[in-house]
Amino acid sequence: EPEVTQTPSHQVTQMGQEVILRCVPISNHLYFYWYRQILGQKVEFLVSFYNNEISEKSEIFDDQFSVERPDGSNFTLKIRSTKLEDSAMYFCASSEETSTEAFFGQGTRLTVV
Amino acid sequence: GESVGLHLPTLSVQEGDNSIINCAYSNSASDYFIWYKQESGKGPQFIIDIRSNMDKRQGQRVTVLLNKTVKHLSLQIAATQPGDSAVYFCAESPYNQGGKLIFGQGTELSVKP
Fold it and tell me: Three-state SS string across B21-34, please?
């Protein structure tokens, strides 16, 4: 069964450092997303991406965040200067269309120290 | 503002009983709704979805009911099993917002053998 894969599974970084979280969406999907989940809280939308551009983003997704699809298979989330409050699980998801099932990866646990 | 909330943070049921998990949403523009199951340390896993032009949809052991009049969504799990123990999130997708999902707070379902 096709799945969304994310690497690494756990990333520890020092405050102020840049991190790149990587995702390989399902191959025939056209819409890509990043979500985050702070421990014990709900899943929060960060950004959606379609046709090589951001189609929607949340207030959380400020200038410190960026997304990129550097090639035909990867989808990355970059945080330029990490803060302690960026510590969370980050989930990548993809879907064939909007208003269809979004498949989630297993997540990357980001710990900022 | 936009929000999707759950009435009960925890639900404990006996194995074999039916479970009902409720959800309230606030965005009238949402036209697509999904229930996800999340096990500890994993990403959200799709259970069932429903579009706004329907009021009921059934899957294997699960049924989703949508009441647009009161903006209420529910998930019914028949013959609940220990493997159903997890956190359940409802999510809504507002029309024409890039496929973003707004998640509720989550209900933790605990199934007693």
Answer: EEEEECCCCEEEEE
